[in-house]
Amino acid sequence: MNPPPSAGGATAGFPTLHPEIIDSHILGRLDGPALASVACCSVALRRHSSDQSLWLSICHSTWPATASPRLSQLISTFPGGGPRAFFSHAFPLFSKLPLTHPPSSPPEILSAVDIHYDGKLIFTKLHSTDTSSDWFRCSPFRADLIELKEAAPAAVKSSAGVGNGGMHEGLMTLSWIVVDPVGRRAANLSSHEPVSVRRHWLTGELEVRFGSVFSGRDGGHVMCGIVVTCGGEMEVREVRMEMEDMDGKHLNGEESLVILQGALEAEKGTGKNRAAEARRRYEEFEEMKSERREREVRREGDWDILCLAIVVSIYFYFWFYIL
């Protein structure tokens, strides 16, 4: 059934709006997932939703670290849609790593890191890591974003008296996007929301942990752990990332680079329930690591008992032979 005509005899509808009103006052107010959903509604909306400047603005508002001139220009050259393609790479969690090794290693990895607390930005930085040096490949991998004796003061106050060391788990969010500037690929290594929060018993500093769990090609798992250490009034004192396997061993640069390349090449999900999915993977990883540690303890205990039995047997055999 057709809608009744208006007083002027014309049918009012969404397509009659001026394109600038649609782009600036309607689509410009949406976030990335909502804009992607709108693009599926009609051909006209898909055309409006494919505007690169619109998606670039969404990337800058979602991740302020992407607003740097270098990264902003790089995002515009991503194959498959520029900023829209970058958003589809950086927003969701990745799935299982590809079975084959990437053909080449990028000589540089960019990290766009943003931390929000209670909806307000308290830390943002674009960090560059040189992956071509021998020092990087042989040393334990660790990316530190804040130099020693340097801190980033926050513009918000912590929620004193709340559980988990004085903060709600959902108040702090973190995004750590790694970008391959040569291959034009990106992946978000953060769980978005904390997977654990604890306060140091001596210093009183708050340690908030984020991370992602990688399912390796050999069936093992690797944890990409991101730790944010905050002092009083949510002063960000440390932001670091490390790679850890199920034995608690920290991976070196070369091993970590393989994991990072796999994350860049991995298929991405939809981004739905990404925080809950990341927490589930983290809890499973910690449970598997605990079970592995218990098996090692039992194995060492069995070896101790066996060695003790051998020593006692030799002792009794010696005295039996003497007497």
Characterization of this structure:
It is a single chain. The protein is an alpha+beta fold and about 325 residues long. Helix content is about 35%, strand content about 20%. It has 10 helices and 9 strands. The strands form 2 sheets. It has a 5-stranded antiparallel β-sheet with strand order 3-9-8-7-6. A hairpin with a 2-residue loop joins strand 1 (about 110-115) and strand 2 (about 120-130). Helix 4 (about 50-60) runs parallel beside helix 6 (about 85-90). The longest helix has about 50 residues, at about 275-320. The model is unreliable at about 5-10 and about 160-165 (pLDDT under 50).
Which descriptors apply to this entry?
4-stranded antiparallel beta sheet, 323 residues, disordered N terminus, alpha+beta
Secondary-structure topology with pairs:
Elements: H1 19-26, H2 32-38, H3 43-49, H4 52-62, H5 69-75, H6 83-90, E1 108-117, E2 120-130, H7 134-138, E3 142-144, H8 163-166, E4 172-180, E5 185-188, E6 196-199, E7 206-215, E8 221-230, E9 236-245, H9 253-265, H10 274-322
Antiparallel strand pairs: 1-2, 1-4, 3-9, 4-5, 6-7, 7-8, 8-9
